[in-house]
Amino acid sequence: MKEGKGDFSPEEWRRKIEERVLELENKTKKLEAERAIANLMGRYAFYCGAGEGERIITELWTKSEEASLEYGASGVYRELWKVRAFYLKKAIPGVMTTVSFSTPYLRVSQDLKSATGVWMAFSTETDAGDLGVVKPLEADTRRVLLSSTGKDGKRYRAEILLQKYEVEFRMEEGEWRIYSLHVSEYFRCPYDRDWVRYAAERFVTDGMWLESLFESPEPLPPCSHGENLPSEASTEHWQYAPDRLPGALPVVLREERES
To answer: For a FRET experiment, which of 9, 33, 56, 66 has its CA 20 to 30 Å from that of 15?
Structure first.
């Protein structure tokens, strides 16, 4: 038998209505948080494509010195100045990075002060190399990363990547900010080649690729002793190889399954 209005006193009905309103308010706030975080990551993608590293740091990242960034097997770079080096690059004609996010999975905390998200990302890395107006010198790290060669012998880079972005967010002064970022590469390969055959070859350049990501023309702080080195070893890293099984689920999904 269904409960009717007469089954509750006015005070009980008022309490139930207040509880329901509070529940709806919390759901609305979580949806608003998810939308704000999705917009943040959308801005991240467009800023990447426009070479706006400074805006990524100042508008999207935390102000906390506990910020951390981990890319593949790079190790964990902890402290804001180390994260800045990842984004602040010298603009070079013909060099471009793009990222396009999909399949977002977000989990916002009950107190609306923190959140965790994971995205798949289709990305590109481009360097005109010998075909550009600023050609890399023989000793330049750029040249090592030029993975394609034309019939004329000129080298360039036109790579596609499938990545996973795992991100922790914090609410700071009324705005969501990236607190930590872990980027994993499923695969990376030149556009005119496939990732299966390229898997073995990519390991030759992975070390230089990862080091170059954290190089910056900006002066380093005295505490760095002239080098931007990782603060600690990588937490975990998996990338495709013909002899490997698929990698583990993202941390946030593993935690949900175990809870």
So the answer is: 33
